[in-house]
Amino acid sequence: MHSHHESAPVFNWAQLILALPFLLALFLYLLAAFKSKKKWPLYRIVLWTLGISLSLISVIGPLAERSHNDFKAHMLSHLFLGMLAPFLLALAAPLTLAFRSLSVQKGRKLSKLLKSKPLKIAVHPLAASILNIGGLWVLYSTGLYGLMHEQNWIYVLVHVHIFLAGYLFTIAFLYLDPVSKRYSFKFRAAVLILAFAGHGILSKFIYAHPPAGVPDKQAETAGMLMYYGGDVIDILIIFVFCFQWYHASRPGTSLSHANPS
Amino acid sequence: MEKRQALNALSGILFGLGLVAFFDETVFHQLLHWHHFYDKSTTDIGLVSDGIFHSFSWFATIASLFMFADLRRKKTFYGKRWIGGILTGAGAFQLYDGTVQHKLMGLHQIRYGVDILPYDLVWNLTAATMLAAGIILLIKTQAEEKG
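YS: structure for the whole thing
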């Protein structure tokens, strides 16, 4: 839809900026995992590598190129970058690995950073949901989607936001790494359902009201892709969430008499 | 004992709800293509209600199965009451879907381009029957447990 997307060199720096942090994260994680004195589980290394690969696929290469003028491709990369990759990366427990491999002093600094006010607020289930789902509503229901393809720096910011909000969202509901404050299963379940509902409603909204410049047919396919693709990832997240409840409420623990839902 | 009673019923109700939602999605949307993904006449409230129920049903299905596993693990599973819960949950959701969501909120119709009345009748009567049977079972199992 935007003819000047052909000017490939302009996009290269945007792609490069987005790809570099992921490559660095992959390098650091692998380094820490292999240097770790206590054996770091292989499945986590695999999950991390998969998560990074999916992120890279969405910000650099053919899919990223195509998503500039194909809304369906954009939606697929959104599913990867904003949902599936953050989920896989969170399962790889990077903070636990970081605490294990950092010196005591640096570990304290990291834990202080995690306990800082802004981060504490950001991982509140409600705040994380608003940043994630609210952000998507802004992207697709305002002119931002069109603007993103006009200005490279907006493109970069939007993609950084999609990924970070997706990651924050995942760790606000699934406690795989240490967190500053744990919210009850009941509260998290209620917010999670509302957040997923917001995602589903947005998918149908896009189906009926395409962002400016997106052809109807593309929006319909993309809306359904977002809806059903979102479902698949929702199910994965819900499964891990319920599994954590099941584990926490096993006989002989304090939660074992708590109400589950 | 009350805890066990409530959990068996709740797990069943959530599973029944999830079951109907899953059936609706696979059979009527995906296989038969009777339901529309989005009906141009859908109201905003219909869209919101559908979104919440769709999301809730996935959660209900998975959560109820983990609750089922928890009941089995603690040897407090009560099959008859669980079935009562399933019928109640399934009936209640289908009745809500067929009356409030389809008719009041105009979410979508069961089928398009046909006389809709027989479809609506079958849909809602099945729902009411399941709901009634479920409630009777729940009341009976409550009484049995006490007596």
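YS: worth flagging: Helices of chain B lie at 2-31, 44-73, 79-104, 117-146.
IM: good catch. Also The mean pLDDT of chain B is 89.
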